[in-house]
Amino acid sequence: MIMDNYARDYFDTIRKGLEETIVTDETGTVIPIGDGIHQWTDDVYGIREERKGLVFFCGNGASASMAEHMSHDWFQNAVVNTLTCAETTHLTAISNDIGYDQVFSYRVSRVLSHKDMLVGISSSGNSPNIVNAIRTAKEKQAIVVTLSGMKEDNRIRRMGDLNFYVPLPTYGEVESAHAVLLHCVLDCFLDRYMRGRH
Length: 198
Prior knowledge:
By secondary structure, the protein is an alpha/beta fold. It has one domain (about 1-195): Rossmann fold (3-Layer(aba) Sandwich), CATH 3.40.50. The chain contains seven helices and seven strands; from the N terminus they run H-E-E-H-E-H-E-H-H-E-H-E-E-H. A seven-stranded mixed β-sheet has the order 2-1-7-6-5-3-4, with helices on both faces. Helix 3 (about 60-75) runs parallel beside helix 7 (about 170-195) and helix 5 (about 105-110) runs parallel beside helix 6 (about 130-140). The longest helix is centred in the C-terminal third of the chain and has 23 residues, at about 170-195. The protein starts with a helix and ends in a 5-residue tail after the last helix.
């Protein structure tokens, strides 16, 4: 019974965090989460159909796994060109030769343009390499979407054109909520533009 309560409370915490997610636009204005999700899917549709660009996903640790997972799912299921930094040679070479804080921004500076989007995923919102990737993407005039959590004043929370902040305090909770949000956006795109999810 105690473990049943623990699981129920944990699930309720994640659900509450998702329901209380705060979405802001590039001006810092709070917008409804549904509007944010629809804007994100509209932007990706424009990237695919009009600008012929790509979506670059980046994160560290569990967020790196989500970045790779989403990069694949958008590429295969939504027929969107995507990119992420997953190669061991790239990660280790750039980290060793230039610095881990530049591991994403180095590639972003070479690949992204105004036709593209960067999705930066950071539970704490304070990862220097994600902050640098966002700054570089903005310099390239790419659309930037951020997913963060934990502290309200985290560094990336207001850096993007769209920002999804999950007000949960621990990595596991934020990561779980981010995974749901990322799949929600993809499924919304599939429902709107690809005759439904599968």
